[in-house]
Amino acid sequence: MMQEKVAGPETATELVTTKAELRSRRAAMEGTVAAVLTMGSLHDGHLALVARARELADHVILTDFVNPLQFGPGEDYEAYPRDLEADLALVDGLVDLVFAPSVREMYPVLPPTVSLSAGRAGTILEGAARPGHFDGVVTVVAKLLHLTEPHLSVFGRKDAQQLAIIQRLVADLDLPVRIEPIEIEREVTGLARSSRNAYLSAAGREQALALSRTLAEAIGAAPSVSGIRGALARAVDRGEIDWAYALALDPATLEEITSDHRGEVLVALAGRVEGTRLLDAAVTVATAP
Questions:
Q1: Using CB atoms within 10 A of its CB, is residue 80 exposed (0-12), middle (13-18) or buried (19+)?
Q2: How confident is the model at residue 169 (pLDDT cuts 50, 70, 90)?
Q3: Distances from the Cα of 197 to the Cαs of 74, 89, 185, 277, in angstroms?
Q4: Mind telling me the catalytic residues?
Q5: pTM score, two decimals?
Q6: What is the pLDDT of residues 63-73, one digit of tens each?
Q7: Could you give the angle at the alpha carbon of 41 between the alpha carbons of 202 and 98, nearest 5°?
Q8: CB neighbours of 32 closer than 8 A, spacing ≥ 6?
Q9: Taking the CA atoms of the chain, what radius of gyration do you get in angstroms?
Q10: Is the pLDDT of residue 29 over 90?
């Protein structure tokens, strides 16, 4: 079921492709501005981000840019799905502005002479499987936040590691923007919405439900730390998908929790289905060993 369109700006959405155009249009915006940063191939999950942004701000800027810096060796940047025309049709009238620059516009020199590092948090979990990925993420996010100058930016919780790293980016560099997380948008079956789902066959989509089932089992085992960890271990043992990890983490540090942990727990899942790496995540609370 498609996300219902929410009330947007009174005029049609405008497309800009250069930093100069973006700065000019942004300077004319009065009131609060929200940014929704995407790599295009938009779906209902992105519309949920847009809807939340519209609730919180007077103006919404959506960026549509496939960032080459976050594609590592063996990842096919050229094969990443792109359909700017479809993206524009989906958000027309919902956002004030779509910024869709070329790679040369964003990076006059590639790779850039100066870039950012995500630190140790960028080398574990998804970062271990995709070396350099999060360095590319924080570099492009910092650039896009600088260019769009939003008061707030909305991110989904599905890419939990990315969200945590972006929150640290904003805090560590004192960027004047609030990061607004929203819950994961799911299909009727429970599968987390993702651009990667387009790579799955019908059988693959069914198999991928192992992620949301595992998440429900782990959350259902709270508030016991041992219960959460036991549910994840059993899921891995069942081997319904090719698991990369199924972990209970401290959301502040992204380190695995120990039996004496009390407070919020990030349940983070990753696995491959038909060669496609899928993620899911949720936050629960542990109050017992």
A1: middle
A2: very high
A3: 19, 20, 13, 10
A4: 46
A5: 0.87
A6: 999 999 999 88
A7: 160
A8: 56, 57, 58, 59, 151, 152
A9: 19
A10: yes
Task: Decide: 69 and 99 in contact? Cβ < 8 Å.
Answer: no
How open is the CA angle 30-36-39, to the nearest 5 degrees? 140
Paired sense of beta strands 178-182 and 276-286, if any: unpaired
Residue pair 276/196 in contact (Cβ under 8 Å)? The answer is yes
Average pLDDT, whole number, for the chain? Answer: 93
Give me the residue spans of the domains in the chain. Answer: 14-182, 197-286
Determine the residue type at 74. Answer: G
Domain with residues 197-286, CATH architecture: 2-Layer Sandwich (3.30)
State pLDDT tens for residues 75-124.
Answer: 888 888 899 999 999 999 999 999 999 999 999 999 999 999 999 999 99
Instruction: Give me the helices (H) in 174-246, please.
Output: 202-207, 209-220, 225-238
Q: Which residue has the tokens 């429970």?
A: 190
Structure tokens at 17: 């492709």
Kindly report the CATH class assigned to 14-182. alpha beta
